[in-house]
Amino acid sequence: MPNLENQAPQAENPANPTVTPSRRFCIAPMLDWTDRFYRRFARELSQHTWLYTEMVNTGAIIHGDQMRHLRFDPAENPIALQLGGSEPADLAKCAKIAEQWGYNEVNLNVGCPSERVQSGSFGACLMLEPNLVADGVKAMRDACNIDVTVKHRIGIDKIEDYSFVRDFVGHVAEAGCNTFIVHARNAILKGLSPKENRDIPPLKYDYAYQLKRDFPQLEIIINGGITTIADSQIHLQNVDGVMLGREAYHNPWILTDVDAAIYGTAHVEKTRRQSMDNLREFVEAELSSGTPLRYVARHILGLYQGINGARHWRRMLSDASLLKNADWRLIEEALNIVESRQESSNVRENT
Fold first, then answer.
1. pTM here?
2. pLDDT tens digit string along 33-68?
3. Which of these, 43, 47, 21, lies nearest to 34 by C-alpha position?
4. CA 157/CA 185 separation, integer angstroms
5. Which of 12, 136, 340, 347 has the most CB atoms in a 10 Å sphere around its CB?
6. Is 223 part of any known ligand binding site?
7. What does the alpha-carbon distance between residue 37 and residue 33 come to, in Å, rounded to a whole number?
8. Is 102 annotated as a binding residue?
9. Does the annotation list 29 as a binding residue?
10. Where in the chain is the domain with CATH 3.20.20.70?
11. Are 134 and 175 within 8 A, CB to CB?
């Protein structure tokens, strides 16, 4: 297990001394995407972005392979474990385990609308059971000393009145939850796929803004449809933090602007190649332990998004025949090809 000493220090927020500013910018938990390989890549691009695991069912942690579900590189800190579950005793047990593994936060999923999740009585359907959510939060807080947070929607199906999410947040906050990540869309439990639930229900950012006005003592983080650093800065005028999802995955280079634009640190100039070179030790260590290169490569396909040579980069690092038994040399070859194409393009532009 990672040593608890690896946890990131909790910096004080002058506007609210009970809230850490680290969650000003977060990457959303995304099933099959935000595994430890992507998170390590994201940390190379931004030192301050708060990272989340994929949602992990409490049963998988209690009865399954903890190493598989909970392992992370200490460099990933600050990092949160997102739990799927509704039984307070199980949530408490998992929160304690998360603390022992060195996570900085445990987050309860009350936002996933998939029918598979509903069948397990957790996810977005829990918004209809605020007492159960509050019991789970209290149990987790009693079991561990790390932050316990909740990620939720603003409504369920045709329940669209602001009072619904206001009352939900108010009730759960009484159980000791101080941080709420608000996906500013309703969850449609029947008739829409999880993908459609991310696009079709209209965004209502004003609901998240109003939550911050109604509960100024709470940390309110906004999620849903945010794709740029500029938009993030606008939202941060109204809430405490922003959470990006798929844009941070498909176009990861935007993360290189986060530390300076969101956290006010000095901008570190580096190239995409330099970022990959910095990851080489991590990647080669994984390869030497038996991890296939494809496990890492699939998460870096967007590195050259919008840049000349991006198609060649994606093609080489997603080609099953090339990836079979491949090592770092394949990444090196792809980097060389992309840079060669960029140099050729610059020559043509200057002639």
1. 0.91
2. 999 999 999 999 999 999 999 999 999 999 999 999
3. 43
4. 10
5. 136
6. yes
7. 9
8. no
9. yes
10. 4-261
11. yes
Identify the pLDDT of residue 19: 40
Q: Is 245 annotated as a binding residue?
A: yes
Q: Is the pLDDT of residue 13 over 60?
A: no
With left for phi above 0 and alpha for psi between -120 and 50, is residue 306 left, alpha or beta?
left
CATH architecture of 4-261: Alpha-Beta Barrel (3.20)
CA 249 to CA 323: how far, in whole Å? 21
Query: Which amino acid is residue 286, in one-letter code?
Result: E
Angle CA 257–298–252, to nearest 5:
10
> Is 31 known to sit in a ligand binding site?
yes
Half-sphere exposure of 178 (CA within 13 A, CB side): 11
In whole angstroms, give the CA distance from residue 128 to residue 153. 11
For residue 182, what are its two tokens? 């608000």
Residue 58: closest CA among 20, 95, 15, 29: 95
Token pair 């790390």 in the structure block, residue:
146
183 in a known ligand binding site? yes
Which part of the chain has CATH 1.20.120.1460?
272-349
Beta strands, E only, 157-248: 179-183, 186-187, 219-223, 241-244
Please tell me the class of the 272-349 domain.
mainly alpha
- How confident is the model at residue 267, as a pLDDT? 86
Which pLDDT score, from 0 to 100, does residue 268 have? 85
What does the block give as tokens for 350? 């200057």
Is 144 a known active-site residue? no
Buried b (16+ CB within 10 A) or exposed e, 163-187: ebbbebbeebbebebbbbbbbbbbb
Q: What is the pLDDT of residues 199-233, one digit of tens each?
A: 999 999 999 999 999 999 999 999 999 999 999 99
Q: Which residues, in sequence order, are bridge partners of residue 155?
A: 186
112, 125, 144, 177: the active-site residue: 112
Sorting pLDDT into bands at 50, 70 and 90, what band is 348? low
